[in-house]
Amino acid sequence: MKDKNWIIVIACTLIVTSALLYSIHYLVFHDLHHIAVFGLHELAFLPVEVLIVTLVIHRLLDEREKKQKLEKLNMVIGTFFSRVGTTLITCFASHDPNLESVRSELVVTDTWSEENFSTLAARMKTYQYDIDACTLDLERLRGFLLEREDFLMRMLENPVLLEHEEFTELLRATFHLTEELSRRGAIAECPLSDISHLGGDVKRVYGLLIHEWVAYMHYLKKNYPYLFSLALRTNPFDPDSSVMVT
User: Fold this and answer.
1) How many domains does the chain have?
2) Of 134, 35, 164, whose CA–CA distance to 156 is shortest?
């Protein structure tokens, strides 16, 4: 309601100002014909002016704003993978019994095209994500996530992430897994049914992680070759990857 009142006040102020200026013009020059001619001229140009402002200038400003938001968003996503994401992928992938069927497809190279990334994204949407929770060191995973709990909370509070629902869902799933693990005592004393439940939470995070990882690699390939180079050399799916440049 306050926003509406503010708009009404501004509109009335502009109309009154315009009427006042026309009145001053008449008092000085006493020429209604001149006022009518130029008033009609300005009114006739108004639709063109609206067209230029709304469809050209506004669109250019909107595109610039979207680009700036995308830059900030991907900076946040990059920080997530650097601090948490890549380590989690490495951990989960080593307990994925089906990974060998897609491992070679996940070995991204610097020669990849848009089509390669699109094909991989489509392939991973149909992939049957699985985790052998019984062999996964949930105690170690809990320690890792609890050390980064504050970091995850700060990311969830970041307003930039509101523009990216899928990545926000990944953060929620990761935080949920952290909370599930933190509320348990000794993991070794948990029954198999509970381990299976935790495995489902891990599998949810794993699938979302890979989806976002593919999208982030695609973004780096298009925009930041030097960051893409490091991401290639630390690819969690490439058994031959090495951070050392040879």
Assistant:
1) 2
2) 164
CB of 177 closer than 8 Å to CB of 201:
yes
Residue 123 and residue 102: Cα distance in Å, rounded? 9
Same domain membership, residue 97 and residue 209: yes
Assess whether 127 and 82 both reside in one domain: yes
Amino acid identity of residue 154, one-letter, is: R
Tokens standing for residue 9 = 């006040």
**Tokens linked to 220:** 């780096």
| Contacts with 196 (C-beta within 8 Å, 6 or more apart), sequence order | 133
Decide: residue 215, CB within 10 A, 0-12 exposed, 13-18 middle, 19+ buried: middle
In our burial notation (b when 16+ CB lie closer than 10 A, e otherwise), range 191-211 reads: eeeeeeebbebbbbbbbbbbb
CB-based contacts of 225, cutoff 8 Å, min separation 6: 110
Look at residues 88, 123, 132, 106 and name the one whose alpha carbon lies nearest to residue 239. Answer: 106
* Domain region containing 29: 2-61
**Is 153 in a helix, a strand, or coil?**
helix
Q: CA-CA distance, 197 to 187, in Å (whole number)?
A: 12
pLDDT at res. 207? 95
- Does residue 111 surpass a pLDDT of 70? yes
Q: What is the pLDDT of residues 80-90, one digit of tens each?
A: 999 999 999 99
Is the residue at 246 inside a domain? no
For residue 56, the tally of other CB atoms under 10 A from its CB is 10
